[in-house]
Amino acid sequence: MRPEQQGVEVAVLVSVGCHPITGRARRADQDARGLELALGLERQLPGSRVSLLHAGPRGEESEAALRGYLGMGLESLTLLEQAEGSDAIPALAEHLAAAPPQLVITGARAERGEGSGLLPYALAERLGWPLVNGLAAVETIENGVATLLQALPRGQRRRLKVRLPAIVSVDGAAPVARQSAFGPARRAELEATSVPAEPDRELAEWQLAPARKRPKRLKIVKAASARDRFKAAAAKAEGGGGQVLTDVTPEQGAEAIFKLLQEEGVLR
Amino acid sequence: MLETLLPILIFSALGLAVIGAWRRVRLWRQGRPSPVPLLKGLAAMPRRYLVDLHHVVERDKVMSNTHVATAGGFVAAAVLMILVHGLGLGSSEGLGGVLGWALLAASACMFVGSLFVARRRRHPPARLSKGPWMRLPKSLMAFSLGVFLITLPTVGVLPEDFGSWILALALAAVVVWGLGEMVFGMTWGGPMKHAFAGALHLAFHRRPERFGGGRSTGLKALDLDDPEAKLGVETPSDFTWNQLLGFDACVQCGRCEAVCPAFAAGQPLNPKKLIQDMVVGLAGGSDAAYAGSPYPGKPVGEHHGNPHGPIVAREGEALVDAETLWSCTTCRACVEECPMMIEHVDAIVDMRRFLTLEHGNTPNKGAEVLDNLIATDNPGGFDPGARLHWAADLDLPMMAERGEAEVLLWLGDGAYDMRNQRTLRALVKVLRAAEVDFAVLGNEERDSGDVARRLGDEATFQSLARRNIATLAKYRFRHIVTCDPHSFHVLGNEYGELGGHYAVQHHSTFIAELYDAGRLAFKPWKGGRVTYHDPCYLGRYNGEFEAPRRVLAALGIQVAEMERSGFRSRCCGGGGGAPITDIPGKQRIPDMRMNDVEATGAELVAVGCPQCTAMLEGVVDAGAEVRDIAELVADALTEAPQATGETVRPQAVEVV
Questions:
Q1: For B354, which residue in chain A has the nearest alpha carbon?
Q2: Residue B131 C-alpha from the chain's centroid
């Protein structure tokens, strides 16, 4: 007999994105993928409920971007209204702790602001929930345990079981977000509540500059024949001088990393 | 006996027809309101019917004459029949039997017409609908013959009591059949419905500008002000009432089907079936009774709908499948060909608007293109700051620096396309050779919104249009010249509704003017045979058929015309976002067009549209080269003869 699958409460944390070329506000790609995953879950598990959560200032530009998520087929979004430059983590943590959903989905990294990708980790730490990153799919949710498929590099997948509530973050491995429809987007509601704003002191001290393209190591292929060139192109990038360290003390590990960074010229 | 029977028959048929008309009108009135001058429309209707509609029908001479004889005979016979047999005026002394003789002539004329209808129905072409339409010639004959025979005694050719009562009864039966089809059937649904609905459709047409030789091709703007309003057409009742009336006027002649590029390519679209599906939707029911060619690959009888039910289902089947709507290239060939002046493209875009704006369901690359347009103002998602990279060495005069110019050169999104950049460079060379005072918007230019609008995203179209209009308002120029007919159409015909009124010219028109003014001189043409492909958005949408041919003639090229050219030009497959939605068919539209080109034996096909260039150049193993008119002109440029000697240009002088 199949164990009964019950609907779950899913909260999707969404941010205001930033188009990589023009810098215009938009729905962030990874967050939208997270919402797509949640909507897929809603379909898969009847009775599930998806809610949208955003913490940040309310403005014309950010509202248009947030409505981009609503156009994917939701009726409302909870907006924790904060002043510009406030720390979103305490507000989100408080809101989630007050009425805990079973699953929190978020993009791996914001497209503006710090974009450090630390938010899911900080949130998980505060709430004391498990975190799974790089989610590709939610397979089943049974008796409060979710079976997840985590994406690893080169298309590999790892199946994990995690007890809910949990936080999962999605990146480019999650399904592509559906089109956002203009009509539903503008009809949907932004339920704004003011929350105490805690200024992000660290961010205030930062200096922001436009990103530069990082230098990329060229793969030098010395191949005599087409066959060799093809093999080189299709082959996995070999780590070469890498080594696998097992059963080492944290100090030994740190030392090995430090040595590698020095060799690579990252630290001088 | 017939004298007593006939008035009863005639007036009961008329009475039933009035009831049917009332019911039909109620069906149309389910649609949204649309303000139309009713009396003015009705007054204009005879002229629209006799002149404008006849012009379209006349393209097929035999059918045109057949229709004149049958319809003219019928209208005259029907009116006279009411007078003669209904009101008994046939034997009145005052008129001296003139009415009776006139009725004989009218019914005889109709009978001759119906013989031609019958001949056509013996081996009907595939585009004609069968089913009830096959009985129409018989019904026409029944009516005309019946009326003719019952009138013979009236004028005294036959004695009043000719024949037995059996003969009279048989005659009455024939008359009943004729009246049933021609009068009762006209409003209760049947082949003759086209006459009733068609006449009113002409009177209350949504684009009255089309009559009297005018042109009205710009899509109508969607009102986006009310956030609660449903956007686009979800159910048949979301069309305006006169659109519904227009659908009901369809005579199922299939001329649209015969010219539709998507139908020919085996994509699941048939304009005639689409209109008939809308009729099914407005009356409610299934399409099982449809007796014409189906949508390629889609069997008839599986779709059904009602006036307030969805046209396209989110899942499963409703009235029409979404891919049918996305197959259209908006080439307007069907609209051009329709003798009833039905607006297929308007209806398709109305339904697409709902799919995009409310369902968020633009197929294939549609969503990506729309996202790009929103984020980068061009469909390819390129950097808006890179719009002029192709002209880095040309030192183009910028509007932002100049403030005014005689000509504003609108580049279009072809500025990002390496193939179109060659055309643009050629055009700049031509403008410079003619010493035209021109400037470009450069990075201030955005996509005109053509693709967004035709993919149904009216919101993005209006956003782009309003920003472009604001940019254009900053500068002074006499007119806009563009080598992109899509931008031409949108700027010239669709920005007006949003407050932007511009004089726009296609580059071929402008080059023709420059040549006529003696500002350009060309070397004689040395190449081979050349044909010209009319872009839909230049020709059918804007009526410019002559200028490109004049330019080619000025180059010394004798155009070997394709069978389908001018207003009947076949689409390249690049319009209406069709390459983006990319609905599969049995063959590709540009391949068919290239076959048309090759049939003329041409080595080169001249085009005037970046989309057409891209589509036709995408044909594998093509027999003809594709060149834009601007490129041909630029290659043929030579020093204008009168320019030498007269003007002394400042030159650098060597100082010793």
A1: A183
A2: 26
The answer for residues whose C-beta is within 8 angstroms of residue B222's C-beta and 6 or more apart is B231, B232, B353, B458
Are residues A31 and A106 in contact, defined by beta-carbon separation less than 8 angstroms? yes
- Assess A266–B contact: CB distance below 8 Å, yes or no: no
| Structural domain boundaries in chain B | 2-203, 233-359, 370-638
Query: What percent of chain B is predicted at pLDDT more than 70?
Result: 96
Q: Angle, to 10 degrees, between the axis of helix B546-554 and the axis of helix B507-516?
A: 50
Chain B nearest C-alpha distance from A187 (Å): 6
Domain made up of B233-359: CATH architecture:
Orthogonal Bundle (1.10)
Can you say how many angstroms the Cα of residue B337 is from the centroid of all Cα atoms in its chain? 7
Give B496-507 as a 3 state SS string.
Answer: HHHCCCCCEEEH
Q: Does A64 touch chain B (CB under 8 A)?
A: no
CB spacing of A22 vs B375 below 8 angstroms: yes
Decide: residue B360, CB within 10 A, 0-12 exposed, 13-18 middle, 19+ buried: buried
Cβ A21 vs Cβ B383: under 8 Å = yes
Q: Where are the beta strands (DSSP E) in B497-620?
A: 504-506, 521-522, 530-532, 604-607
Question: ipTM for the complex?
Answer: 0.88
Q: How many CB atoms lie within 10 A of CB B42?
A: 14
Cite the DSSP H helix spans in A23-59: 29-44
Domain ranges of chain A: 9-205, 226-264
| Whether A73 contacts chain B with CB within 8 A | yes
Which residue do the tokens 């500068």 mark?
A: B475
**Digit-coded pLDDT (tens) for B159-204:** 766 667 788 888 888 888 988 988 888 898 889 999 999 999 999 9
Residues of chain B positioned with their CB less than 8 A from the CB of A178? 360, 367
Tens digits of residue pLDDT in A58-103? 999 899 999 999 999 999 999 999 988 888 999 999 999 998 899 9
Q: How far is B445 from chain A (nearest CA, A)?
A: 15
Nearest CA-CA partner of B120 in B69, B193, B178: B69
Which residues in chain B have Cβ-Cβ distances shorter than 8 Å to A180? 360
Give the architecture (CATH level 2) of A9-205.
Answer: 3-Layer(aba) Sandwich (3.40)
Looking at residue B619, the DSSP 8-state letter turns out to be: S
Angle of helix B136-155 relative to helix B165-179, nearest 10 degrees?
Answer: 130
Q: What is the pLDDT of residues B320-375, one digit of tens each?
A: 999 999 999 999 999 999 999 999 999 999 999 999 999 999 999 999 999 999 99
- The answer to whether B356 faces chain A, any CB pair under 8 Å, is yes
Closest CA to B144 of B181, B98, B109, B184: B109
How, if at all, do strands A25-27 and A16-18 pair?
antiparallel
Q: Do A24 and B459 touch (CB under 8 A)?
A: no
Measured CA to CA, the distance from residue A18 to residue A56 in angstroms comes to: 15
Instruction: Closest CB to A187: pick one of B228, B361, B370.
Output: B228
Q: Judge whether A267 is closer than 8 Å to chain B, CB to CB.
A: no
Q: Give CA–CA dist B249/B45, Å, rounded.
A: 14
End-to-end CA distance of chain A: 62
Mean local confidence (pLDDT), B121-141: 93
pTM given for the model = 0.91
Q: Which long-range contacts (CB under 8 A, 24 or more apart) does B286-292 make?
A: B287/B319, B289/B131, B290/B129, B290/B131, B291/B129, B291/B130, B291/B131, B291/B132, B291/B133, B292/B127, B292/B128, B292/B129, B292/B130, B292/B252, B292/B254, B292/B257
Residues forming a β-bridge with B547: none
- How close is the nearest chain B Cα to the Cα of A182, in Å? 5
For chain A, say whether B457 makes contact (Cβ under 8 Å): yes
3-state secondary structure of B374: helix
Contact in structure between B271 and B310 (CB atoms under 8 Å): no
Beta strands B530-532 and B604-607, pairing class: parallel
